[in-house]
Design brief:
heterodimer, A: about 270 residues, Rossmann fold, two-stranded antiparallel sheet, 7 strands, B: about 300 residues, alpha/beta, seven-stranded mixed β-sheet
Chain lengths: ~270, ~300
């Protein structure tokens, strides 16, 4: 059970993260706001409660890793990493600008705290399972958290990675599918149907949980359960794209559209 | 003449490396019997990972292993690494400049009977246009072995290209291997032949034929396509009347075009390319395909004469 104080702390952090997301994309006039807002609660739970990590030692070998396989949602990870202290918040002003280490999609060699390059969909989960195998070979026992978009898992490579994690019994992998039913071209079940997701992942040998991806208590509890499994775990996190900004919620058009001035102001007002 | 497989040089080097360095891992995508990495598996079963028929996941997972400090050699056929898993080569490996070695076999027309689907004649072009990627095309068994060692020694992504067949052993290219350095294996002052990969033996034969016609012929062997030894090329452009390149690869985007670009920007002289024309291959025995697709000493001589006369 999360105590009330912790719960309030996480709620506040998520709100700050969301404000940073909207600001960053507005300022850059470019970037992915909807999916970033939708994943904000999962990343907040991970970085401010679940993960063993140290912003002062981004290269610490036994840290938990986070791989943003849905690499377009850099605004949410950059907001979190900056707030944690991996790099100065002022860097966020340069998001998507020439010379900045904050590229449109995560670039591991330059950004402290980014654990893998992603951007083309499907490669993140594969890299993540490779890293997790590496940790096993080194007999280390940290966790590899991998966040996939639901549209992303239409990529065949995702299912290759799923087979690989099963073969090598990677019980140090805890994945999420950010299930918001929306992708660039619209409703996922119309673009390319994905349901039923739970039996799909189960049949690939993963333990599957399906949860509310905005409920801190449930997210954190489920991760604790996942750690007790002796196989890779996929958490289907039902989320709302654009969560927290009423006029962006559940709208595919906010996948990759930057908010104009009036939208930005309304969004910031709503987020408080 | 002695003939040996280049892929055997790769396999032998992997075992030698495995004994020296426990960070060396080998991955394969269900072609371990063909790439010969099953020989590594027999010695180091715990450091061999068969990914099944999934080249894309194999290359990205190899990137993950490199991030954890290992030196993974991901092995498959050339056509599958570059065409099937080109994005993973680019985005997972080349872009973050990870220490992954991509060892590919069954490259070029001498793949033979499997036909065009498996004959990778475009892979050098695909690999060399990726920033950060080192591209090595060894000429025979021993050079393959040495090149694999050199690839392990350097930090960063390397594309190592081998064939399926047995190829002539060429003592002139033995004795050492430095990435990025051409090997001047025969001096000459009228014309230069620049070879890569298994075309080195055809290049030397062509030089003999040209010498008999009275032309002093230089042979420069370039097992490293990238980084390219530009100074050796420029020197040849200055000191001889022209250059013929020879590669078991498409004439597009491979050695020939790389050499032509260096020459035209630095010291223009005629450059003619021997290689597979802009066409797909077909099934056949490797040696007859070498004849049919114009990859012989006589084809090199023909181009040289064109320049010289």
């Amino acid at each position: 059970m999360l105590n009330l104080k912790k719960h309030e702390f996480l709620k506040n952090k998520a709100r700050e993260v969301r404000k940073e997301i909207v600001s960053m994309v507005h300022r850059a006039n470019s970037g992915h706001v909807g999916g970033s807002l939708g994943a904000a609660d999962i990343l907040t739970a991970l970085y401010y409660h679940v993960m063993q990590h140290d912003p002062k030692k981004p290269e610490w070998e036994e840290r938990d890793r986070f791989i943003l396989s849905k690499g377009h949602c850099t605004p949410v990870i950059y907001a979190v990493l900056a707030d944690c202290g991996y790099f100065p918040k002022v860097d966020l002003l340069e998001f998507r600008r020439p010379g900045s280490h904050l590229q449109g999609h995560p670039y591991q060699p330059k950004t402290p705290g980014i654990d893998a390059c992603t951007g083309t969909l499907g490669i993140g989960i594969s890299t993540g399972v490779g890293m997790a195998l590496g940790a096993k070979l080194k007999k280390q026992d940290q966790y590899y958290y991998i966040l996939c978009g639901d549209g992303e898992i239409q990529e065949g490579q995702v299912w290759e990675a799923a087979m690989f994690a099963n073969k090598y019994k990677l019980d140090n992998v805890i994945g999420f599918v950010d299930r918001n039913y929306l992708q660039t071209d619209g409703y996922s079940e119309k673009v390319m149907p994905l349901d039923p997701l739970v039996p799909k992942w189960e049949s690939f040998g993963w333990k599957v949980f399906e949860i509310d991806g905005h409920d801190f208590e449930v997210i954190i509890d489920t991760i604790e359960k996942a750690k007790k499994e002796d196989k890779p775990v996929m958490i289907i996190a039902n989320t709302t794209k654009g969560k927290g900004v009423s006029f962006m919620e559940g709208k595919a058009e906010w996948h990759g559209k930057p908010p104009a001035e009036d939208d930005f102001e309304r969004a910031m007002q709503e987020l408080g | 003449m002695e003939y040996k497989q280049t892929r055997q040089g790769y396999a032998d080097a992997l075992i030698e490396l495995g004994k020296k360095n426990e960070k060396v891992l080998v991955l394969d995508a269900d072609v371990a019997k063909a790439t010969l990495t099953e020989q590594f598996e027999a010695v180091f079963p715990d450091r061999f990972f068969n990914c099944g028929v999934q080249e894309q996941n194999m290359l990205s997972a190899a990137a993950g292993l490199a991030l954890e400090g290992f030196i993974p050699f991901a092995s498959t056929f050339g056509v599958f690494a570059t065409c099937r898993a080109g994005d993973q080569m680019r985005s997972s490996i080349a872009y973050p400049k990870l220490n992954v070695k991509i060892g590919v076999t069954h490259c070029g027309i001498t793949t033979g009977g499997d036909g065009a689907s498996h004959q990778s004649n475009e892979d050098i072009g695909m690999a060399r246009t990726l920033p950060n990627m080192t591209v090595i095309v060894p000429g025979d068994y021993e050079e393959s072995r040495l090149a694999t060692h050199a690839a392990a020694k350097m930090h960063g992504p390397v594309y190592l290209r081998f064939g399926r067949d047995k190829y002539p052993v060429v003592p002139e290219i033995h004795g050492g291997f430095e990435i990025g350095k051409a090997k001047l294996i025969k001096e000459g002052s009228d014309i230069t032949i620049i070879t890569t990969g298994i075309m080195v033996s055809e290049g030397l034969q062509a030089a003999d034929l040209l010498e008999k016609k009275g032309y002093s012929t230089r042979v420069l062997h370039m097992p490293t396509i990238k980084p390219l030894d530009e100074s050796a090329i420029i020197k040849a452009a200055k000191e001889t009347k022209g250059i013929v390149t020879a590669e078991e690869h498409s004439i597009l985007a491979g050695l020939g075009e790389a050499v032509a670009a260096v020459v035209s920007e630095n010291h223009p002289c005629p450059v003619h390319r021997v290689g597979v024309m802009d066409t797909f291959g077909e099934s056949g025995q490797s040696q007859e395909l070498m004849d049919l697709y114009g990859l012989r000493a006589k084809d090199i001589v023909e181009k040289a004469i064109k320049i010289l006369e």
